[in-house]
Protein 1
Amino acid sequence: MRLSTFTLACSAMLFAGSAYAQQTTLTIGMASADAGRLDPHVATTTPDKGLLHYMFNGLVRIAPGQASPEYIEPDIAESWTSSEDGLTWTFSLRDDVACHGDWGMLSADDVVFSLERAANPDTSAFASDFRAVESVEATAENEVTIILSEPVPSLLGLLVPYHGGNIVCQAAVEAMGDQFEREPVGTGPWQFAEYQPQQFVRLVANENYFRGAPQIKEIMLRYIPSDSSRDLAFQAGEIDMLYGRQDQTWLDRISELPDTTVVAMRPGEMSQLMLNMTMPPLDDVRVRRAVAHAVNREAMVEFKGPDVTLPAVSPVPEGYLGYTDDVPQYEYSPERARELLAEAGFPDGVTLNAIHTTLPGMLATIEAVQAQLRESGITLDIDLVEHATFHAQIREDLSQVTHYSAARFPVADTYLTLFNHSDSAPGKPTASTNFSHCDVADQEIVAARIEPDQARQLELWAEAQRKIMDAVCVVPIYQNMQLWAWTDSLDLGHEVVGSLNLSPAITEKSRFTQ
Amino acid sequence: MGSFVLKRLGFAVITLFCVLTIVFFIVRILPGDPALVILGDQASQAAIESLRTRLGLDQPLYIQYVEFMAGVFTGDWGQSMVSGRPVIAEILNVLPATIELTVAALILGAAVGIPLGVWSAIRRNSVPDYAIRLASLLGLSFPAFVSAILLLLAFAITLRWFPVMSTGRGETFGARLNDLALPAINLGLIMAAYITRVSRSAMLEVLGQDYVRTAKAKGLAFGTIIWRHCLRNTMIPVVTVVGLYLGILIGNSVLTEIVFNRPGLGRLIVGALNQRDYTMLQGMMVIYTLIVVVVNLLTDLTYGLIDPRIKYK
């Protein structure tokens, strides 16, 4: 009897001990120096988007661990329907979604307010995404109807909690004013608790989260801009998860640490050379084709690391909805490149200029490309400027070759519109990032955007990609995957293939096993 | 002395005015649009224009300048263009961590550098002198970020004595010291290298003075000569160098702050520069100018304490 009591007491103590030791705080090492504006309709940096993803919901979401729109599932909306002409979308909302803190239950009016706010350029950086939205109305207590001026088959993609799709609580936004971007209020599994400049943002569990209280009770996002320090902090056990440097050596080194999971996530950032078609000699397609033949993609993938990069052949990154590799391809051939240059009237080669950022990862790539181009008689003069200057000068059309690296919402339309539609060229009122001034596929891009038949839409996107590669508006080089590592004791609760927000999804089911 | 201080403060206001005017125009000459940096490359032109209007960047330059100057002298330094938080609050939030680190590095640098410099001078051209000179040369030429990583590998990863992340916000005195140790050593050793070299050359000069020879002839103990007659006279150039270097140190601590993940003015100004945060840059310049002016004033006043022959007029 005494022995069993003793055993019971010991078991209870052990249980209590293990319960006490259960880790419930997740510390994440972020690569930026500090948090920016934390208003989800304004925040554009990768670290801020990751943070906000833990705090906000959309009408729909992409399943945790995935990045492709084919995994869209309900979030705040339980179900939805669209009219036959695709112009009217009706969403039925959950009735158990609470705003963080004391801001009450989320209503259809909050959703209307959020989407109107996202479509307003005075309050949103993503207003242009919503140009086809004619009106948003609360048509019943838990129902919202969106009226479009033209069909947008990928509308659901705009309504995921990413950029303008994040749903905010109207009362909080109106009452807090500018303070909202410092202490944002959402409906997600974690809510804002504390911010220390240059140090951390602390989130705490939203115990009223509609999918259930999160098992991780606190998330500390620590801002550690030095790659080496972030790695050392992880090695010392001071952080549980970290953003990795996008190269093979980092992956190899971190993979060797005990009890560590390393993941290369999609969507990748596609690195591409944008050739300014309005500037001689790049106004001659033979010169652009020569550049395409002069770039050795396999060597670049080998250079950056085969486990962290994928070769790129199309102006749309692989894995994006609408991607095709059935496009004109330009095998590596310095001989063919020289022939094309000679045909174009440049038997002695050409000299091109590239204004380029000093960001180390991108710099290593352009220097390798520069060496490859030299073998084909193409001299690339690189004018190095710091990052903000780079962005300013390429928008002034000062660069013949623009090396750009970006990940976008993984639908072909996004990449094609931003990088290859003439409306996005510098100098236009709707200018964005079409630094090559490409205009050869405008018709297909616009037609695909409003095409209700999915098979036809895919064909239009494929045709656009073929035309762009035939004209060589851009020379795709490779895709760089997002690298993350975390301790094995962290069970995210889902398989991680990718993440739209470029940070691994952490959900209410994520937990520590120790 | 009162009129001296007042006069120096008057000059400080003029200096501040000139520095701020130069900074105001230089940051606006730099290519790079704050609205584009804030909203990112996916933002529409309409959103960028809207933000430029809200930030007041669409106003003529002279109006921005007048508003800025009026703000500086009325204590309204505006809000950070990037974070939206008040500039003064952001600066005051990290200023204590910078002062803490700088003072600790200064104390460590002086505690190591002065004795080594004096010893090196006394034992001129001996093995210890060569060793100290070599060590101080290494200290000056070794990049701060490399020494920081080596310190982390040795004391945070291998020995686990100190944390990798120095938050600068420990709740107890012990915790703060623990946080401060590695960054202070990293910065302090560089300072020690400077002070060692200056102390050595100043001491060598003093040792050749007539009054030292006289003291020796009188039969004073060597320790007394060094301690009572040489050291104090050595301190004037040391204080000058420390004063000059302290201002630079506050700005140059950025690498140490980044590697040890410590908050501070250095990190703040680099971030503001990269993001074209005009208001933050301007606020930082006000603070830096004030720091340099105050440190120079304190240096001048310290001369009088060290050498009573110095009079302030």
Note: Residues 2-21 of chain A form the longest helix (20 residues).
Protein 2
Amino acid sequence: MIIVVSLFIGRYPLSFSEVFTALGFKLGLVQEPVPSTHLNVVWDVRLSRAILGTLVGASLAVSGASFQGMFRNPLVSANILGVTSGAGFGAALAIILFDGQTLFIYLFAFGFGLIAVVLSYLIGTTYKATPTVMLVLGGVVVSSIFSALISLLKYIADPFNQLPSIVFWLMGSLASARFSDTLIAAIPMSIGVVGLLLMRWRLNVLSLGDIEARALGLNVFVAKSLAIFFATLATAGAVCVSGIIGWVGLVIPHIGRMLVGNNNEALIPVTISLGAGYLVIVDNIARTLTGSEIPLGILTSLIGGPFFIYLIRRTKARGW
Amino acid sequence: MGIINVSNATFSYGEENIFENIDLEINPGEVFCLFGPNGCGKSTLILCMMGVLALTDGQITLGNRNVRGMKPPEVARIAAYIPQSHEKPFPYKAIDIVLMGRTAHTSTFSPPTPTDRRIAEEAMEKVGIIQFRDRPYTQLSGGETQLVLVARALAQQTPILIMDEPTAHLDFRNELNFLEAIVKLVKDSSLTIVMATHFPNHAFYFEGTGIKSGLALMNNKSITIKGNPVEVLTEENMENVFNIKSKLISYTWKDETLKQIVPLETF
């Protein structure tokens, strides 16, 4: 629904019928030629952006909900494990080393995202039985190291070509969306989202803590690694294509908890749809509010931060 | 051959032995109390029985298989575990918690089936807490929470139930209520129960209800004495293990002669 609506919204003035004709032509339903600008606007820009927004929103939200469940901490998200900054560093490195070739940006962002999680996990498992707090601390350390490395890269980057593209990409935007890009990025995000969706009941068991989960018959190490892998895949995929978009992974799961409670069986699907809808709406606002586009990451933070304070105040009395 | 056999078991963290050279044989259909002062290694021994921790030396068998070589779901289909205290990370409904007892019976990527849900509901009925089905279990009292965990263990459908000081945080009535629930289960479904406790009279209580009950006294990193409650819970043993003077008393209740051991003073 939201996707359909966003097809009609945009800076380039198109009438309803023009949008329909363009769509119909692409699908082979309409024979008479359509102006190529209309085609571009509807198909490449609006539709692929909406699809990308759906995927990115779903990925960020579901990975946040999963991390909250498995680390038994309602205040963590993908950022906590350093996934976001790790992937950010990888992509920035690729922009500098390989002049921004798409493939390398993807590979590097994903690779460093994974490295960041593994590092956090290793720091977290220094003590036996992987206490949650150590893992979170490990993530904070790794995250700040990668942030520093990103600053270093910005400092040495070529200020005329590379620096602007790194800075804009890091601010978070869906503006890069083209149909081919969307397809590539869709693979890791879809695998991650579907994987977590299938594991959602196990996330409940994981949230009881290592000893109880194990006594209930869960192979905790395998289940946790799988969940972390899927969540990282989804997050890294999202960061690759849209930069660092904050707060979605923290705020959306909490709205989900208010709506359907904490059982991940219901929460995970709801979080996926909410995240997808939210990001597409915010993106529509981002590209129509002012003449030049506002980076999406800035908007989600501006909306998410205050909204989160409101959430905390509202739920304070009732727990989560 | 017992359903649980512990032979020559030693466990150490680094240099220090938590317990050493423990031998135990727990028979099917028995309520076995593991009794000892705080910090004597009861909880560690229990985690070793569940395969959560690995022995440094010796071996433990669960239903004739070495627990060391068993995968978590295999252990969880033989023995269920009720922890001493249970942290409540999220306000799940009581039924959701009980349903988690079905983990070992479902595969990685599939949610519980309607059959699993039915089994979970039956377990709650058996324990008498079906009225809490849809309540957030964070709102339940300590005693009610323990019963939810018992229902979860029942949903696991195991022949063995292992409990680590399950009544430690319960008040007088809830403690008795919990013990009654356990007695009913043992009588109805011939479960084998291992229970760590620091209340010696739990063993007398079980014996008084006519259940086969065994007891081991754990102290100074090993089992000091084991047998039935009358053999183990003597005034002399209390003196040696706890350094207390105590009195073994008998009383009559419903035409049965029951026993209790009463602590009198330290020395």
Note: Chain B touches chain A through 35 residues (CB under 8 Å).
